[in-house]
Amino acid sequence: MKKLLGIFVITALLCLSMTANAATLIGHWGFEEGSGTTANDSSSNTLNGTINNAAYTTGKVGSYALAFNGSNSFVEVAYSALLNPDTVSISLWFNPGSSQVMWADLLDKGHGAGTTPYYGGYVLQYHEPVDGPPYTQGTINTGYGNGSTFPSMNTGSSYLDNTWHHLVAALGADGMALYVDNQLITSGAGQGAIVDNDSSLYFGRHRTLGRYFSGLIDDVQIYEGVLTADDVDRLYSQGTTVPVPGAIFLFAPGLACLAALRRRFLK
């Protein structure tokens, strides 16, 4: 009986773990206000941002997106510990201009210069060939600080085409993955957790160095954990402004598993 009870407990824990690995929404900025200087976060965390010199324009998802002029446009979301998980997944739509300044930032959580610690935070930014091969101008880098290094990935292809693209990056302890337009570009094991820093979150610029992005950004979503390929497909294919319900999809199988165990061991 004790052996059966042990098997039941272990299997039950495995069932419940099905519900524990879902990515959890931290913030969702759809830019659907249409006017004003506040970018509302539609998640329950209300991490609202302040719009600086970015203009509303026709959106990819919903009615509106924000246009960034490449010189002084950005959105700032004030520091919150919620934005510093061990692993983060970022989803956004972007429509880039044909020319970008060196290391133009789509999204920056204060990585590198001017931030404490230096090796903390995370970023989505354009790569510059000044740093040499194998990458070329117009490709996009993403990476994070683990306290001592910046593990990173690159799209390999250039995006300077005035066309909408969907970009998803997972970074941190639980793994790394980079998707463009629903295609997995690269993935790998995580190299430690993201280290917390003291920075705000920025769309369209670097915290201290400028590096202003030129183009459009829409429907920014940030999650704790790793978005699955199915999650990415839903975000891309449905053009949703609704948070990915990963936990719901996982919770039901977990309950079904427990119900089956109950019938097996308690009948």
TrEMBL record:
It holds the Pfam family Laminin_G_3. Keywords: Lectin, Membrane, Signal, Transmembrane, Transmembrane helix. SUPFAM superfamilies: Concanavalin A-like lectins/glucanases. GO terms for molecular function: carbohydrate binding. The chain crosses the membrane at residues 242-261. InterPro entries: ConA-like_dom_sf. It comes from the Bacteria. Residues 1-22 form the signal peptide. This is Concanavalin A-like lectin/glucanases superfamily protein. The lineage of its organism: Bacteria, Pseudomonadati, Thermodesulfobacteriota, Syntrophia, Syntrophales.
